Amino acid sequence: MILSLCIALPAATAFLLLLLPRLAAQAVRWVALLGTLATFIVSLVMFANFRAGEAGFQMVEKQPWIASIGVDWHLGVDGISLFLILLTTLLSVLCIISSWSSINERVKEFHFFFLLLETGMVGVFCALDLFLFYVMWEVMLVPMFFLIGVWGGSRRVYATIKFILFTMAGSVLMLVGILYVYFHTTDPATGAHTFNLLVAMEQAHYALEVQRWLFLAFGIAFAIKVPLFPLHTWLPDAHTEAPTAGSVMLAGVLLKMGTYGFLRFCLPMFPLATMQFVPLISVLALIGILYGAMVAMVQKDIKRLVAYSSVAHLGFVMLGMFALNIEGLTGSLLQQINHGISTGALFLLVGVLYDRRHTRLVSDYGGVAKVMPVYATLFMIIALSSIGLPGLNGFVGEFLILLGTFASNAFYAVLGTAGIILAAVYLLWMYQRVFFGEVSHEENLKLKDVTLREGFVIAVLVVLTIWIGVYPDPLLSRMQPSLELVLSRFQAAGVSQLLVP
Amino acid sequence: MLDLAYLIPFFPLLGVVLNAFFMRRAGEKTVGVLASGMIGLSFLFACGAFFTMLGMAPASRRLEIELFTWVAAGKFEAPVAFLIDPLSLVMMLVVSGVSFLIHVYSIGYMRGDPGFRRYFVFLNLFVFFMLLLVMGGNFLIMFVGWEGVGLCSYLLIGFWYTDDAKATAGKKAFIVNRIGDFGFLIAIFLIWTSFGTVQFTKLIPMASLYPVGSGVITAICLLLFMGAVGKSAQFPLYVWLPDAMAGPTPVSALIHAATMVTAGVYMVARANFFFTLSPAAMTVVAIVGGGTALFAATIGLVQNDIKKVLAYSTVSQLGFMFLACGVGAYVAAIFHLVMHAFFKGLLFLGSGSVIHGMSGEQDIRHMGGLKSKMPVTYWTFLAGTLAIAGVPGLAGFFSKDEILWKTFSGGQTVLWLVGLTAAFCTAFYMFRLVYLTFHGKFRGAKSAEHHLHESPRTMTVPLIILAVLSVIGGYIGLPHILGGTNPFGQWLDPVMRPVAEGEVMAHHGEAATEVTLMIVSVLIALAGIYLAHSWYMKKSETVKALGESALHTMLLNKYWVDEIYSIGIVQPFVKGSELLARYFDMGTIDGLVNGLGSFFSWVGGGVRRMQTGVVQNYALFMGIGLLAVLAAFLMTTLG
Questions:
Q1: Residue of A225, A448, B191, B251 with fewest CB within 10 Å of its CB?
Q2: Residues B56-69: tens digit of each pLDDT
Q3: Residue B3 burial (CB < 10 Å; 0-12/13-18/19+)?
Q4: Which structural domain, as residue segments, surrounds residue A468?
Q5: A428, A445, A486, A499: best to mutate for the B interface, most B CBs within 10 A
Q6: Domain membership flag for residue A279
Q7: Number of independent structural domains in chain A
Q8: A residues 72-111 closer than 8 Å to B (CB)
Q9: ipTM of this model?
Q10: A143 part of a folded domain
Q11: pTM
């Protein structure tokens, strides 16, 4: 019940908004805030009910939906999806708050789409039915299309069409893969085909050749979302043109759909193919880490810089995942959460500056620390988290990723570790040009420091950054059993050379 | 008392929290006293732990305190754990003690600065991380402290961030250090994959099972040393330290002389159970250390910025410490580390006092004759100078001499000569500094001369305390040859047991040789002082002539190493990234994507022309299609 509630609440709130008068912008905001807040609280209840130490799905719900073709409303949560759901519901609340004064046109429509987006995202992470998963995956696209296309920056139409085309191209391939799996999965009770993911996983004993194709069908869709080099060029455009809330959701949650997809479908269902694709994906991830960092370094637009930094960070996530050992996988999953927190916060921070000056160019700033000291401090902490400073969240994830990678392939790990140097280069250089020095533009002299509302939103994320950095155990211990289960499928598939030290 | 030792790093952290959040409206005095008081508490607790441990049998002087599980995944586990043993206690005492003095000094030095509270928050945070570094019971906690002090260093170098050059210096420090940290991190990975733990006390017995010269151990040592080279500013990663002088002078004293930069030496000494097993790595450490000691000392000969001279001196002295580590004389390395903390901390604080009195002037060519105006500063500075120069009886004499002796008796004659030359340079540049700054006539502007004054009590008292330590501190390690028992060596002995320093090593050399060498190094130091005196105490034509030589230009420009890095590495990298972004990312990849888009709209546009709306055309297409299908059918059935 609780997962259904998590999915339904935002959608219900969205339709409630439709009943409000068009001009009641303030009422719309409050209703949307209450809706997302309620969803967040429900997800906290879910967290409280989650039994740590268990590997399988919990709070499972199953209702026949389209019985004739074996589609169920089938939901569940495990250590892999738990924190991704929490991240989604939390960021949603923060986004609504952060959009309070920056979205002034079509307020109702904005919040309507935003809430639908949240439903889609939570749905993707909860779905245990391939058909339902696909529906949620697509449901998510539509609101995002409008969020970028209507409330975005000057090149929003180009960006949003590019985003949609890229994602659609992947979705189509994934649909083919889903259908293939469907026709090779039979419900043991009825003998009919079923979209039930749990059954599909159990019966996933495909020949290597088949696995390879299926891995590609699913994997390309996910790789575009991640994004894995060289499928990443939609990202800087979409992230940069989207309104702040859209960028936060894109970076914080949507990218994780790709990495989540790999973890949920490709690894457990196609272990033999996964083993074969390790070199390819690891190399692409490494290129992403180094190349993303280098390109980020020379960006002139702060938001674009942050966008490219995501390419590098997600490279780490993929690298750790394809180390295929528990250390790497745990780091990878934790880093997905960390990236959501710190990059989400970075986009929120850039949004604060953009709201004041309506420019995102690095060269339009300088000396901001002097006029906005609190803002500069918050920005510094988040940047350090992104750099991977020990004591903040990013380090724990990156460390485990590189440790796991080192255990399976020392060479990859050495290259990946070099990426950590670069992260410091591009972020500190940008920080210096924006915040240090004398105030070089007169317009910036009168910049107001963060308001209580803006400060609160970021402070929430800063607290999480420190908490996960100092005491990540509550997360790690809940993630691991489920990840061990994924790895056990490799042993079951007879992959003997499993790379565990 | 020992059980409470885990509290030691948390006092400064408490200071950070209190000052950052609850002292927004408090006056400077409250903020400064609070911050200093927290460090004072750490120092008191460290003393308590020290005396408790002193009362224990040498073999049982080791305590591990585990607070909670930090990172645990799969088989990897790293708790937040402290290791209290003679080595970490020495470091804890030095760090908290010197920090306390410098905190007090800072209250006077930073008076009136708009960032006063921010300064003390950063400084306390630094001490927290530094204590974490030296107390950490495993490599990961050590790494946390390691990176943390790097962060504070970055924040404090760029403390006056409105000056772009200072901000750049901070960033440079952070990034160059990260290059070293790259090695450190990979060392941790390698340690874990080889041993399955990163905890010091578990590693020691495991490492001893490896044969001497094992490849894995050598790799681990060299990677760890790469981290040390970054943090302790050795060649080729030393370039950040001279620039780091952009920070407030007490910061230079604390972070960039007395404590943080010595972390690399501490790390090598802590990991002595690895290094001892790898003669190859030891040789590398010794050569890099000895080479850097001389290299930096030569640059120090001609610098005109008072802090720059001291900065290169620090690089050089750290080189001495690594030289000691490289010849297996870890006790001598730590001994020199402690003495260096006293006299270099003192010298930097003294230079701060000078700069304070000179209203910000740092160029020694514009100073002179400050002796009479700033007597306390002068006498304390002189004490520090005598100590670092290696004048018999003072702190630096004992420690430096022990290093040179161990180098010689270890058979490294070339490195001994290198060290001796560096020691000569040290005596020379330090006395050049003293003569140009404090003696002769004042060469600055009249207004500056009028303004000259001795610094306030909060600044001079720490100077006096450090001066006393610089004079008498060396006696804690009085060697046997001079009738001492080297209590310092005995204290550290259990930690350095694998090498059995002190006692056993001493047998390698003849007592007569040791005395001879001691005399040689004293003469060398005196020669350096004499040369400085004859060149800088009176007008010297030689100095003028040398000042125009190519050698002088090369030294003044620091061998152009910064320029070489800039042209050879930094600029190509940035340029390459720009090309990559413009031509590859936007051009090639995105070009392909957009090209694909254009292709389809072009095809679509072409195909659209068929939709003419003329029925005859459609009939024609249908006819053609029908014929084609027919033909295909016939061909497959007949063929």
A1: A448
A2: 888 888 888 999 99
A3: exposed
A4: 270-495
A5: A428
A6: yes
A7: 1
A8: none
A9: 0.92
A10: no
A11: 0.91
